[in-house]
Amino acid sequence: MLPRWLDDDEALGPDPDAAEDEPRHDRQAAWWRPGRRVGPKTLAVFSRQFAVLLDAGLPLLQSLEILSVEGQHPGLRRILLDVRAEVEAGSSLADALRRRPRAFGNLYGNLVAAGEASGALHTVMDRLATHIEKVAALRNQVRSALTYPAAILTVAAAVVFLILWKVIPVFQHLFDDMGGDLPLLTRIVVGTSEFIGAYVLVLVALLAVAGFAVPRLLRTRQGRQSADGLLLRLPVAGKLMLRIVTGRTCRTLSILLSSGIPILSALSVAADAAGNVVVEDALRKVRREVEQGRPIHESLRQTKIFPAMLCQIVYVGEQTGTLSPMLTRIADFYEEEVDNDVDAMMKLLEPALISILGIVIGTIVISMYLPMYSALTQIG
Questions:
Q1: Residues 22 and 30: beta-carbon distance below 8 Å
Q2: 317 and 325 in contact (C-beta within 8 Å)?
Q3: Which of 10, 59, 132, 321 ranks highest by number of CB atoms within 10 Å?
Q4: Residue 310 and residue 226: Cα distance in Å, rounded?
Q5: What is the set of domains in the chain, with CATH numbers?
Q6: Largest separation between any pair of C-alpha atoms in the chain
Q7: Start-to-end C-alpha separation, the chain
Q8: What's the pLDDT at 171?
Q9: Full-model pTM
Q10: Per residue in 240-267, is it b (16+ CB within 10 Å) or e — as a string?
Q11: pLDDT below 70 — which residues of the chain?
Q12: Rg of the chain taking only CA atoms, in angstroms
């Protein structure tokens, strides 16, 4: 299962409870069902358009009205109509957005509140759009890198399973007619084929149970904590994942601090947006220690999760009062490192997969021809 930050946030569909005699516009707006999320691409476009309207001098209510009428996403249009009604009734924009956490999230609501308090809402919306676009681009890049090997390995596993289940028994009957002792490699392959043939229904049932139970287990905090911890400990993927999460955390903290959010609130929001339970727990621990008066860089170092370079950069930022720009620089650095790592991994992945598949298929083929070669040698 993919990490949380790789999951697709956009899952909109028609509302089965919608009335048949609704007007077409209302029926499209009813696509939105409570509890569903707005996709990052949709949210980024909305944030960018909202920033442009506000920067042009349009009032808040008029901007919301324009976006709720002209927006391309029916679910988001429905939300904006409700948000505009609440703002018109006296609610702040941040409070109206916070009442819809599945659509906008904690980070979005806190930044909008900071923008309203500082009178620079258009600037905050522009920063939000840039942040969402960067996170979405990174997620799509990593997802694309993972899709290819996952598809190849799945097809290869299915092909090997079918060979062992259906093809090897044909050779086994031939070996029985030939008589004699089989080579060790052939006995291993034939034994594996016999096991699959005898317990194929059990194996399929176990696979189905695992496919049903594992995703539900990973939705629990304990299951996600175990999976995220294992992911960070993997030899190559763990280092890449830590860089991704570190860059994401630094980017989130930077945009929060530059928008005027206090450091304690920024750490809480960054923990929620980390996308990894182990890192989330570490950030909450950092927040508690900072609240007690400990420097941020020392608290980060004590977690033994974050890279030493991050702690050093945070120390410089604390000493010079430039923590937000420093976090932006370190986020840019790690995102560039992730780009390089993914490119290098993709270049090495294809020959590695071909080599692995060649070894597996070659072993099966050689194991089938060894008895025939031995028989022909004896005849010769």
A1: yes
A2: yes
A3: 132
A4: 25
A5: 4-133 (1.20.81.30)
A6: 97
A7: 55
A8: 81
A9: 0.73
A10: bbbbbbbbbbbbbbbbbbbbebebebbb
A11: 1-37, 71-72, 179-180, 375-380
A12: 28
